[in-house]
Specification:
The chain is α/β, with parallel strands linked by helices and 257 residues long. It is built from ten helices and twelve strands. The protein has a single domain, classed as Acetylglutamate kinase-like (Carbamate kinase), CATH 3.40.1160.10. Helix 3 crosses helix 4, helix 7 packs parallel to helix 9 and helix 8 runs antiparallel to helix 9. The chain is globular and about 40 Å long. Bound molecules: adenosine-5'-diphosphate.
Length: 257
Protein backbone atom coordinates (compact mmCIF):
# COMPACT_ATOMS: atom_id res chain seq x y z
CA UNK A 1 0.00 0.00 0.00
CA UNK A 2 1.23 3.47 -0.84
CA UNK A 3 2.26 5.47 2.20
CA UNK A 4 0.46 8.73 2.92
CA UNK A 5 2.59 11.83 2.56
CA UNK A 6 2.97 14.40 5.33
CA UNK A 7 4.90 17.64 5.71
CA UNK A 8 6.25 18.52 9.14
CA UNK A 9 7.26 22.14 9.74
CA UNK A 10 9.35 23.15 12.70
CA UNK A 11 9.84 26.74 13.82
CA UNK A 12 12.92 28.52 15.13
CA UNK A 13 11.66 28.69 18.73
CA UNK A 14 11.30 24.95 18.91
CA UNK A 15 14.81 24.26 17.63
CA UNK A 16 16.77 26.83 19.59
CA UNK A 17 17.01 28.27 23.05
CA UNK A 18 19.33 31.06 24.23
CA UNK A 19 22.45 28.87 24.10
CA UNK A 20 21.96 27.47 20.62
CA UNK A 21 20.36 24.29 19.45
CA UNK A 22 18.21 22.74 22.16
CA UNK A 23 19.80 19.31 22.04
CA UNK A 24 17.08 17.67 24.11
CA UNK A 25 14.24 18.98 21.91
CA UNK A 26 16.22 18.32 18.74
CA UNK A 27 16.87 14.73 19.74
CA UNK A 28 13.18 14.16 20.45
CA UNK A 29 12.15 15.87 17.22
CA UNK A 30 14.49 13.71 15.12
CA UNK A 31 13.32 10.56 16.90
CA UNK A 32 9.73 11.54 16.03
CA UNK A 33 10.72 12.20 12.40
CA UNK A 34 12.38 8.79 12.18
CA UNK A 35 9.28 7.11 13.65
CA UNK A 36 7.01 9.01 11.28
CA UNK A 37 9.22 7.96 8.34
CA UNK A 38 8.35 4.32 9.08
CA UNK A 39 4.67 5.04 8.52
CA UNK A 40 4.58 7.94 6.06
CA UNK A 41 6.52 9.67 3.35
CA UNK A 42 7.83 12.60 5.39
CA UNK A 43 8.99 15.99 4.13
CA UNK A 44 10.51 18.36 6.68
CA UNK A 45 10.37 22.15 6.43
CA UNK A 46 12.84 23.50 8.95
CA UNK A 47 13.54 27.03 10.07
CA UNK A 48 16.44 27.79 12.35
CA UNK A 49 19.24 28.67 9.90
CA UNK A 50 19.48 32.32 11.01
CA UNK A 51 19.65 31.55 14.71
CA UNK A 52 22.11 28.71 14.10
CA UNK A 53 24.29 31.18 12.16
CA UNK A 54 23.98 33.69 14.98
CA UNK A 55 25.51 31.25 17.43
CA UNK A 56 28.58 31.10 15.20
CA UNK A 57 28.95 34.82 14.56
CA UNK A 58 27.09 37.70 16.18
CA UNK A 59 25.96 39.86 13.25
CA UNK A 60 23.27 42.48 13.88
CA UNK A 61 20.06 40.56 13.19
CA UNK A 62 17.96 43.67 12.68
CA UNK A 63 19.67 44.20 9.31
CA UNK A 64 18.05 42.06 6.67
CA UNK A 65 21.28 41.43 4.71
CA UNK A 66 22.88 40.18 7.91
CA UNK A 67 19.96 37.81 8.42
CA UNK A 68 20.53 36.50 4.90
CA UNK A 69 24.23 36.06 5.68
CA UNK A 70 23.41 34.34 8.97
CA UNK A 71 21.06 31.95 7.16
CA UNK A 72 23.87 31.12 4.71
CA UNK A 73 26.24 30.50 7.63
CA UNK A 74 23.76 28.52 9.74
CA UNK A 75 22.08 26.34 7.10
CA UNK A 76 24.96 23.84 6.61
CA UNK A 77 25.40 23.46 10.39
CA UNK A 78 21.69 22.83 10.77
CA UNK A 79 21.66 20.17 8.08
CA UNK A 80 24.75 18.58 9.60
CA UNK A 81 22.97 18.37 12.96
CA UNK A 82 19.92 16.79 11.35
CA UNK A 83 22.08 14.18 9.68
CA UNK A 84 24.11 13.47 12.81
CA UNK A 85 20.94 12.76 14.76
CA UNK A 86 19.08 10.99 11.94
CA UNK A 87 22.01 8.62 11.57
CA UNK A 88 21.30 7.23 15.05
CA UNK A 89 18.03 5.95 13.62
CA UNK A 90 19.59 4.65 10.42
CA UNK A 91 18.19 7.52 8.35
CA UNK A 92 19.48 10.59 6.61
CA UNK A 93 18.26 13.77 5.02
CA UNK A 94 18.86 15.97 1.98
CA UNK A 95 18.66 19.72 1.59
CA UNK A 96 16.35 21.65 -0.74
CA UNK A 97 16.33 25.44 -0.74
CA UNK A 98 13.20 26.83 -2.38
CA UNK A 99 11.59 30.21 -2.97
CA UNK A 100 7.92 31.03 -3.54
CA UNK A 101 8.60 31.71 -7.24
CA UNK A 102 9.46 28.03 -7.58
CA UNK A 103 5.75 27.37 -7.04
CA UNK A 104 4.71 29.97 -9.64
CA UNK A 105 6.46 28.14 -12.42
CA UNK A 106 5.06 24.82 -13.52
CA UNK A 107 8.44 23.73 -14.84
CA UNK A 108 10.25 24.54 -11.61
CA UNK A 109 7.55 23.08 -9.39
CA UNK A 110 7.72 19.87 -11.39
CA UNK A 111 11.51 19.72 -11.14
CA UNK A 112 11.37 20.25 -7.36
CA UNK A 113 8.55 17.70 -7.01
CA UNK A 114 10.53 15.16 -9.04
CA UNK A 115 13.51 15.66 -6.73
CA UNK A 116 11.34 15.24 -3.63
CA UNK A 117 9.70 12.13 -5.09
CA UNK A 118 13.08 10.59 -5.89
CA UNK A 119 14.31 11.25 -2.35
CA UNK A 120 11.14 9.86 -0.76
CA UNK A 121 11.30 6.78 -2.94
CA UNK A 122 14.62 6.00 -1.29
CA UNK A 123 13.35 6.81 2.20
CA UNK A 124 15.50 9.93 2.48
CA UNK A 125 14.12 12.92 4.38
CA UNK A 126 13.88 16.06 2.21
CA UNK A 127 14.73 19.02 4.48
CA UNK A 128 13.37 22.19 2.95
CA UNK A 129 14.09 25.80 3.82
CA UNK A 130 13.56 29.07 2.02
CA UNK A 131 16.54 30.14 -0.06
CA UNK A 132 17.16 33.30 1.93
CA UNK A 133 19.92 34.52 -0.38
CA UNK A 134 17.46 35.18 -3.20
CA UNK A 135 14.14 35.54 -1.35
CA UNK A 136 13.41 37.18 1.94
CA UNK A 137 9.64 36.89 2.39
CA UNK A 138 9.72 34.11 4.96
CA UNK A 139 12.73 35.68 6.63
CA UNK A 140 10.66 38.81 7.21
CA UNK A 141 7.09 37.62 7.50
CA UNK A 142 6.53 33.99 7.93
CA UNK A 143 9.20 31.80 9.51
CA UNK A 144 8.37 29.26 6.78
CA UNK A 145 4.66 28.84 7.59
CA UNK A 146 3.60 29.92 4.10
CA UNK A 147 6.38 27.94 2.45
CA UNK A 148 5.34 24.78 4.29
CA UNK A 149 1.72 25.22 3.12
CA UNK A 150 2.94 25.53 -0.48
CA UNK A 151 5.17 22.50 -0.04
CA UNK A 152 2.21 20.48 1.30
CA UNK A 153 -0.05 21.51 -1.57
CA UNK A 154 2.31 21.39 -4.54
CA UNK A 155 4.08 18.23 -3.41
CA UNK A 156 0.71 16.62 -2.82
CA UNK A 157 0.81 15.88 0.89
CA UNK A 158 -2.22 14.69 2.81
CA UNK A 159 -1.39 16.75 5.89
CA UNK A 160 0.82 19.59 7.11
CA UNK A 161 1.90 19.45 10.75
CA UNK A 162 3.16 22.74 12.15
CA UNK A 163 5.20 22.22 15.31
CA UNK A 164 5.14 25.52 17.14
CA UNK A 165 5.89 27.12 20.49
CA UNK A 166 2.13 27.09 21.03
CA UNK A 167 0.08 23.89 21.38
CA UNK A 168 -2.75 24.99 19.10
CA UNK A 169 -5.04 27.79 18.00
CA UNK A 170 -6.92 29.54 20.82
CA UNK A 171 -9.97 31.79 20.79
CA UNK A 172 -7.61 34.61 21.85
CA UNK A 173 -3.85 35.01 22.42
CA UNK A 174 -3.07 32.74 25.42
CA UNK A 175 -0.05 34.90 26.32
CA UNK A 176 -2.38 37.84 26.85
CA UNK A 177 -5.55 36.14 28.04
CA UNK A 178 -5.40 33.51 30.80
CA UNK A 179 -8.89 32.30 29.94
CA UNK A 180 -8.14 31.62 26.29
CA UNK A 181 -9.45 28.22 25.19
CA UNK A 182 -7.93 25.87 22.69
CA UNK A 183 -10.00 25.15 19.58
CA UNK A 184 -9.63 21.49 18.62
CA UNK A 185 -11.26 21.55 15.19
CA UNK A 186 -11.52 24.25 12.54
CA UNK A 187 -13.06 23.73 9.11
CA UNK A 188 -13.22 27.34 7.93
CA UNK A 189 -11.34 30.55 8.76
CA UNK A 190 -13.33 33.76 8.43
CA UNK A 191 -11.89 37.01 7.05
CA UNK A 192 -12.54 38.50 10.46
CA UNK A 193 -10.42 35.89 12.28
CA UNK A 194 -7.58 36.49 9.85
CA UNK A 195 -7.85 40.24 10.47
CA UNK A 196 -7.96 39.79 14.25
CA UNK A 197 -4.86 37.63 14.14
CA UNK A 198 -3.07 40.18 11.96
CA UNK A 199 -3.97 42.97 14.38
CA UNK A 200 -2.63 40.94 17.31
CA UNK A 201 0.78 41.56 15.74
CA UNK A 202 3.90 39.48 16.15
CA UNK A 203 7.52 39.84 17.05
CA UNK A 204 9.94 40.83 14.29
CA UNK A 205 11.10 37.96 12.18
CA UNK A 206 8.46 35.44 13.18
CA UNK A 207 4.98 34.92 11.92
CA UNK A 208 2.96 34.64 15.10
CA UNK A 209 -0.45 33.06 14.71
CA UNK A 210 -1.46 34.98 11.58
CA UNK A 211 0.92 33.20 9.20
CA UNK A 212 -0.26 29.88 10.64
CA UNK A 213 -3.89 30.79 10.01
CA UNK A 214 -3.01 31.90 6.49
CA UNK A 215 -1.24 28.60 5.90
CA UNK A 216 -4.29 26.73 7.22
CA UNK A 217 -6.65 28.87 5.13
CA UNK A 218 -4.64 28.15 1.96
CA UNK A 219 -4.74 24.41 2.65
CA UNK A 220 -8.45 24.35 3.54
CA UNK A 221 -9.21 26.19 0.29
CA UNK A 222 -7.28 23.47 -1.49
CA UNK A 223 -9.08 20.70 0.34
CA UNK A 224 -6.13 19.75 2.54
CA UNK A 225 -5.58 19.54 6.28
CA UNK A 226 -3.20 20.99 8.82
CA UNK A 227 -2.44 20.18 12.45
CA UNK A 228 -1.03 22.95 14.66
CA UNK A 229 0.59 21.32 17.68
CA UNK A 230 3.34 21.87 20.21
CA UNK A 231 6.94 21.27 19.19
CA UNK A 232 8.04 21.49 22.83
CA UNK A 233 5.95 18.56 23.96
CA UNK A 234 5.44 16.19 21.04
CA UNK A 235 2.73 14.10 22.72
CA UNK A 236 -0.18 15.47 20.68
CA UNK A 237 1.69 15.38 17.39
CA UNK A 238 2.84 11.80 18.08
CA UNK A 239 -0.64 10.69 19.10
CA UNK A 240 -2.07 12.08 15.90
CA UNK A 241 0.60 10.94 13.47
CA UNK A 242 1.66 7.65 14.98
CA UNK A 243 -1.51 6.51 16.76
CA UNK A 244 -4.27 8.24 14.78
CA UNK A 245 -5.60 9.89 17.98
CA UNK A 246 -6.47 13.57 18.19
CA UNK A 247 -5.53 14.25 21.83
CA UNK A 248 -4.70 17.94 21.41
CA UNK A 249 -3.54 20.56 18.96
CA UNK A 250 -5.83 22.21 16.42
CA UNK A 251 -6.86 20.21 13.40
CA UNK A 252 -7.80 22.39 10.44
CA UNK A 253 -9.61 20.12 8.04
CA UNK A 254 -12.27 20.70 5.39
CA UNK A 255 -15.78 19.52 6.24
CA UNK A 256 -16.56 16.26 4.53
CA UNK A 257 -19.61 16.73 2.34
P1 LIG B 1 6.68 29.49 16.01
O1 LIG B 1 7.92 30.31 16.09
O2 LIG B 1 6.64 28.36 16.95
O3 LIG B 1 6.34 29.06 14.62
P2 LIG B 1 5.24 31.95 16.73
O4 LIG B 1 5.85 32.30 18.05
O5 LIG B 1 5.64 32.70 15.53
O6 LIG B 1 5.40 30.38 16.48
O7 LIG B 1 3.63 32.04 16.86
C1 LIG B 1 2.90 31.47 17.91
C2 LIG B 1 2.50 32.55 18.92
O8 LIG B 1 1.36 33.25 18.45
C3 LIG B 1 2.07 31.99 20.25
O9 LIG B 1 3.14 31.76 21.13
C4 LIG B 1 1.09 33.03 20.79
O10 LIG B 1 1.68 33.91 21.71
C5 LIG B 1 0.70 33.86 19.57
N1 LIG B 1 -0.75 33.91 19.38
C6 LIG B 1 -1.48 35.04 19.14
N2 LIG B 1 -2.80 34.77 19.02
C7 LIG B 1 -2.94 33.43 19.19
C8 LIG B 1 -4.07 32.52 19.18
N3 LIG B 1 -5.32 32.95 18.94
N4 LIG B 1 -3.84 31.20 19.39
C9 LIG B 1 -2.57 30.74 19.58
N5 LIG B 1 -1.48 31.54 19.60
C10 LIG B 1 -1.64 32.87 19.44
Amino acid sequence: MKKQRIVIKVGTHVLNDEDGLSVDRFEKLVEFLAQAMEKYEVILVSSGAVSTGYFKIKLDKTIIQNRQALAAIGQPYLIRSYNEFLQKHGKFGAQLLLVSDDFDSRKRTKAARDTVNALLKHNILPIINENDATAVEELIFGDNDQLSAHVAHFFDADLLVILSDINGYYDSDPKKNQNATLILNVSKISEQKLREAADAGSTFGTGGIVTKLKAADFLLNNNRSMLLASGFDLTDAKNFILEGKHSGGTLFSPKKS
